[in-house]
Amino acid sequence: MTPPDDLVRAVEAVLFAAEAPLTVDAIRAHVGADPRPALARLQADYAGRGVQLVRRGDRWLFQTAADLAHLLRRTSEERRSLSRAAVETLAIIAYHEPVTRAEIEAIRGVQISRGTLDVLLEAGWIRPAGRREVPGRPLTYATTPGFLTHFGLASRRDLPGIDDLRAAGLLDPVDLSSERLEKPGDSA
């Protein structure tokens, strides 16, 4: 393996010292050159190691290899589980963003409490994404780079599809039976 050049070393140092994941433009501002070749080199150099260089959305960061993350968890770590309403709301936002509160409620079929969105905002998984250009100008919501990082996704395209969800047993039998009823031409 050839030793890294100055650009690779500079990009590595910038990412290592960063408090949050960085975009290519932010890295370029620090090192004064296009960092993409250095990022590719670093990603290859760190592949299979205890720390890896990963891209989450349009941002880059070093993180512990997924198979070693359990070594760094604190046993006293308090895990806050999301309510079913919060999980459903997060999924709707992830799959339909940008989406308004009214659209979330229409998809879920029930109203959501303000606290549900507050929990997701506080977790850093969703953010206000502007206002719709319709009467009332409702606020829209979208996922954040923190959402991608937390769930280990490079982009929203990595979200599981319907077949993945079915294979994992995450679809209600009610959902599956109603899906069968909707298929034309099926007879018992």
UniProtKB/TrEMBL annotation:
Which example biological process does GO assign this protein?
cell division
Q: Which UniProt keywords apply?
A: Cell cycle, Cell division, Chromosome partition, Cytoplasm
- Offer one Pfam family short name for this entry: SMC_ScpB
Report the InterPro entries cross-referenced here: ScpB_csome_segregation, WH-like_DNA-bd_sf, WH_DNA-bd_sf
Task: List the protein's name.
Answer: Segregation and condensation protein B
Q: From which organism does this entry originate?
A: Sphingomonas abaci
Instruction: Tell me the lineage of the source organism.
Output: Bacteria, Pseudomonadati, Pseudomonadota, Alphaproteobacteria, Sphingomonadales
